[in-house]
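User: Fold both of these, please.

Assistant: Here is the first one.
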Amino acid sequence: MSATRVADGLETTPFRLSRVGRQALVYGAGILLSKAAAFVMLPVYTRYLTTTDYGVLDLINVTLIEATTVFAGASLVIGIFRFYHKAEGPDERQALLSTALLLLSASYAILAGCIFVMAPQLSTLLFGSSGKTTLLRIASGSLAWEGFILVPLAYLRIRERSQLFVIAQSAKLALQLGLNLVFLIPFGMGAQGMLLSGLLANCVLAPVLLGYLLREVPFRPSRQAARQLLGFGVPLITTQMAMFIVTYADRYFLQAAAGSAAVGLYALSYQFGFLLFTLADLPFSMVWGPLRFEVAKRPDRDRIYARCFVYLSVVLMTLGAMLALFARDFLRVMAAPAFLHAADIVPLLLAAYAFHAWAKFQSIGILVRERTWFIAFADWSAAIVAFVCYWLWIPPLLGFGAALATLAAFAVRWAIVYSVSQWLWPVRYQWRGVVQLAGVVGVVVAVGLLLPGETLVESVGARLVMFAVLGVALWRLPLFSDEERALLRRARSEPRVVLGKLIGRPQAGARDDRDER
């Protein structure tokens, strides 16, 4: 399978999607492994951690990992990808990677040190007392090591060493999960054990990855590379701050309104939204992100964008319907009874992340026209909507109000991005089938959630019937062409052949065009 780049009426070397497909499968397998491990461990976590422990961990992770990394310069990683391919030779690339390593390790270490020193004050601010000081200090140590991990992992992605990337992440995951079991079950350390296992895993992984990078890339930082990275990455901090408000600020409102137990339940509900994003949107984005600009130069770009949007929507809505229908049954098996109410708000969060994925896909007009400040405007508009709705809805509705506010914010963000993008650079999307599918999914999920299910078998059986109804609708709705339907029929009888056609195979004698060290 290939796409041909078209520029100024001339064709250049075809771009082979098989290379992208193979890399996406490896990354997708790694993502799936990490998520599967997290859900397999859920019975342990929900039995050896209280809802309060769960809420405390979520607030610490949000505060130290998500909020702090915005200010520590995590957006500089995007600059690494941009300027690595813009560099004219190995010397400039080495300088870029060395400078990024220096900047990120220094910024993360400085912020981690500040958190360590101010841990009593942060504990009082977040939890109303200084009792969580030790937990915050353990988490700050883990954060300090993150600065040494980011650049080596970015280097693996640049050099298309996806297998090494997944091996490194899987090794860290395995070590952390093993330590979690030890600290939680025999020692009963609760939230402190979870944070300590993360710190120790980073302490092991960071030196290994850092040594690997320094063996391949001589340490040669430069001022020019620093100016490039900071000039590119610093403006992105504002949009990251806005999305942090939309994604995580509801925890602080919940903490103030009802305490850590309410935050814990909501955090568990949110994992289903993250799961939809991780399994449906993230693997697709890793492939589509660079390819969409190449498609923009083709005369048939509308058809390609439209078909890819249909494919993305089908995956999002099918997986989202499955998660919404079976969330309660899953928690009934995997979690303690105190966590069952987390399933009540899962459908709202899944809908929110569907809008999030749509906005990412349909921002192409803004990106092609290089009017990225419109994305910042959309993100901050969503943040304002989220903040107001959190303030109005969380005190009376708690988790339901937080989920409803999140849905409203992501919907507003999509509406702005889509409208502006279509104004700047119109694309003829195939909306008819997508809208009809959204309506069917809404009805199927609503009916499925209302069906009785006193026992687990009855509940699963009833919801399987509704999911089968969705499957029939998928086939009958105007979503797929005749050729696509024929390919789907063949996939049932010859899945390996169809998969080989989709991802391609390495070409004999293919040239490795990676740069010299």
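And the second sequence with its predicted structure:
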Amino acid sequence: MQNSTQEKPIILMVDDKPMNLLSLSAAIQDDEFHIVQAGSGNEALGLVLDHDFALILLDVQMPGMDGFETAELIRSNAKTRHIPIIFISAVSQEETHLFKGYDKGAVDYLFKPVNIFILKSKIHIFMELYKQKKEKEILYANLEKALAEAVAGRKVIDEQNILLKDLSVKDGLTGLYNHRHMNDVMEAEFNRAIRYKTDLSCLLMDIDYFKSVNDTQGHPFGDFVLKGFAEHLIEHVRDSDFVFRYGGEEFLVLLPQTDLIGAVAMAEKFRKAMEKIAFRQAEHQTSLTVSIGVASIYIHHPSDYSELIAFADQALFAAKADGRNRSHVYHENDHEPLYKKLPRDQRVHYIKDNITAVLTKTKKASVASLELLVRDLGNSRMKKRTLMLREYITMLGYHMNLPPQVVETFKLAATIHDCFQSMIGCADDGIQAEEDRKQIPFLMAELTEKFDFFADEREVLLAHHEHYDGSGYPLGLEKDQIPMGARIFSIAEAFVTLCMASESNSESMDTAVITLAEKAGKIFDPQLVSLFLKALKACDPNKISDQTFDEAKKAMAMHLKVKSGKRGGKP
């Protein structure tokens, strides 16, 4: 590990070309930090375990393990997932590559040749954030030591309360959520799926002939098998999924925003994996299979969450009746699994198993505390604004086909922004001086440093006042240099602000639409504005009149034509 006396932050630079490492190191070298170089993804993975890096500059195109794979592995490790990663790439600048970079956990994405000024500015920010983090860690360590005796009794009580809370929602043997907590989660997720018109699938699993394991090899070994089964099941689901011990040797998996095909793919992948696993403990050994019942909201139309479970239970019964070790889709009049009727080219697994982990529950709890504080300050208007912001960010993210976890990050950033803005007082007494106003993004970034797990949201807060043409602040970023989340947030924020400016005016939304269109390519990303307006029209055709929609398209087309003419003029 890094020596505790080490004062300067360390940057890890990863590139398979030594010349690139040499030239970039020379360009950004500064007395305020050290640079460690790695020539491959494998070498980088070894280094991140031995050093406390403040930042990673990661090349995308590398032989063997590329940058995306390296970032995904770094993000999957609890010890290293907090390290901010900036991708540096010479590949295509299409948004699919950008989305993939953000999907793998990048805080930013720069293209070669790198603008050294922009890169140095970003590095400087991360170095300051890292130093502040270290200073706080030292301060907190000293405070904890000084107060250890005083809070010892309280600590014991708190630990016992946490343990009691865990015991109330978790199964004591497997560590999975228990049946009682399952009902609460199922009801909430079912209602959310109905409200937002998304799919929700349920897998009910039963270990085949498990009774014989207990009877022939004893209950202690049976408990060992159940714990091992639960661990393997957790490895096969996404962070957004929920896994419960339903009872005995039965387990339930809830898959939000997953349709029937995706649920069957996940079930089959896990079922086949279990066929190859042997459970061993001392002289005991066994292999096992699992039967799985599958049901979903969109296909089966359950009236409530309990009926969704009942459908999955009936499908599980059919799977066992058909010979066990199989997945079976609930079907009222046909015992043949529904997915087998689909064309072969649709029988694919299209849901990723390992989406970059975000600490969803911890983040939501922290943001909920901030929202409670703002509510206590009596700012009801800010609450309404935040709800609208989250709604429009969700709408645009859905129409961009962004992963749900990425959209959730952008929504959390919007909530944090409004909470901080309300507490700082920007919305009321304002910060009128231009120089003071430009410090607000830095201030919000500094405030989120209190929460180490808000690194991705921090990028949005830092860049949400940047303009597409480079005229914004604080760093003067332009176009794709601005993080995707910040570009999305700036559009949603401007739209909500304009709509709320004159709530009594029935034409306020039309005015907001025209304003976005006129400023596309200047302040806002024109492609995202176009998608936003199309999404708005698709979600509720009555929200925007056809005349306004046509005027907006003309305004955007005229502006983009002018911009194109400038680019084609004299050099």
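The chain has three domains: 10-134, 179-346, 360-567.
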